[in-house]
Amino acid sequence: MPNAKPKIVLYWHRTDLRLHDSPALQAALSLNPTTFIPIWTWDPHYVYKSRVGPNRWSFLLESQKTLSNSYSKLNPRQQLWLIREAPQSKDEDAYARERDGVVVKLAEEAGVEVIVKSGRTLFDVDEIVRKNGGKPTMSMAQIQKAVEKIGSGVPERPIDAPTSIPDPLTRDEMDLKGVKHDGGGGGGGMGSESNSGTDMNADHRSTTDKQYAGIMGPGNDFGVPTLEEIGINPAEVQTPHRGGETVALELLAGYIEDEEYIGRFEKPNTSPAAFEPQSTTLLSPHLHFGTLSVRKFWWDVQDVMERRKKEKKSNASIPTNLPGQLLFREMYFAAHAAVGESFCRTYGNPMVRFIDWHLQSKSPEDIAHGEEGGKLYEVDSDEAEVWFLRWKEGRTGFPWIDALMRQLKQEGWIHHLGRHSVACFLTRGGCYVSWERGAEVFEEMLIDHETACNIGNWMWLSCTAFFSQFYRCYSPIAFGKKWDPEGNLIRRYCPELAKFDKKYIYEPWRAPIANQRKWACRVTGDGSSSTNEDGKIYPKPMFDFDERRTICLDAMKNAYHVGLHGNDKELKDGSWRKAFGLDEDGKRPKKKQKT
User: Fold this and answer.
1) Would you state the CATH architecture of domain 121-161+247-341?
2) Over the stretch 143-172, which tens digit does the pLDDT of each residue have?
3) Which of 35, 226, 332, 551 could be 8's S-S partner, Cβ–Cβ 3.0 to 4.6 Å?
4) Which of 266, 294, 295, 301 is nearest to 280 (CA)?
5) 348-362+382-495+545-585 has which fold?
6) Helices (DSSP H) in 211-347: which residue ranges?
């Protein structure tokens, strides 16, 4: 009897860096391959054209190493094979969805059978969109109604991890050194020789970028890159949060053991000021990279809640409980899928209200024809630009805001109510700066950055979509005091204020000079320097918050009255300025002084 024809299966990992509950992996192995090659493409688009800081790079690399080791444990000849080249499980990001289509078309033209499975969300988001009439899901009621039509609103049970993995090709057969290599084609870090164009992460690269030295990697072994290979100094990684499937499953198991925590969890009742440990699960980065299956998370929680229900114990309910939080994630993913690429900005987005923010994004056309590496937004106000940069760097002079922004930069994560505080402050509650600027900063710094959720939350907090009660404004003083009257979060992340009495910890500029000297920190300047002749310094507030809140509220009322949206013609022809009473240069008329 002749030997059966070898069956080679190439399995493409991206946002599913795990073995447990992987529908695509199960489908691949069910083909009974004689040769199995699990790969991850080190795509230049994400390397150079997506904002990624050192903390998220580290989390990704740890997750890849864990997965590669897991493959090796099942089969010593196996690993996660990293290809340094462009072109994945089915993905809902706009760029990735477009790329998937190209890859599938090329594969089919080459006679390769392509199997696509969804494993990133509880339900297939395209199906959610169809069940919602082809429209973006804009509320919890809409997402619940849509998923109710898919398996009665209950996701499929998770599947087990495989217990064995077939061999890959031999090392000689896997040798791709002779294959034509584009050399990344993305940006180019410091000293990069193989790339050209814009590198959005160049500021984080302190050494030569070697990651595209060859299609098999610098060691010709398809290995997981090191931070040094991508030009990042490991000392820049400050997050205490570790990546990988092993860590994710251990974290989840620890929470599941605490049935009271799982059953009574309500997101709005968790403290944004808690650290070591934080008040929420911090499983979101694991959901993003797929080191934890969202279906396993859902069902492990659901099983606890069902058990409590049978025991007559109370459970929190949707939307504030844990399943409700996962449904919010589905809502944003489905909205993104329905709108497409324009979901990530105001321009061309039919669902987002247009507000006359400072530092508006340039149109895609202007960016395409603009100077390479130039600003992606208009600086209509030098003052607003300064406010934005001080906000980003955690030196606004408002300790609650600064502590949260410094925590974000150091650790790559802040509590969702902390995100609410800093987002409201930047947009409708202080600076009146475009939410798109804030979303870009979060994209860079968050280890749990998920495009759909990040953009959706910024729209929500800026009251441009999903939420419209713009008069509900977070105070950078009163809100922090509510959760942390002692100011412990501030003392942790703004250590120069550690000795201040709690009476002044949220408003240190009100402390008498004698007390400031006593507590070894003067409140002066703009925070561009951390010391002076008197010792440590902390910046003065960059504006009067009560005054700015009033200005922002009045402007929001006017913007809602004007009633423009992102896809209106006034945005394309520039006539929106006239609708908002701006001059030809986009400047706001100066108010006459009262006499």
Assistant:
1) Alpha Horseshoe (1.25)
2) 999 999 999 999 999 999 999 999 999 999
3) 35
4) 266
5) DNA Cyclobutane Dipyrimidine Photolyase, subunit A; domain 3 (1.10.579)
6) 245-257, 259-264, 284-289, 294-310, 322-339
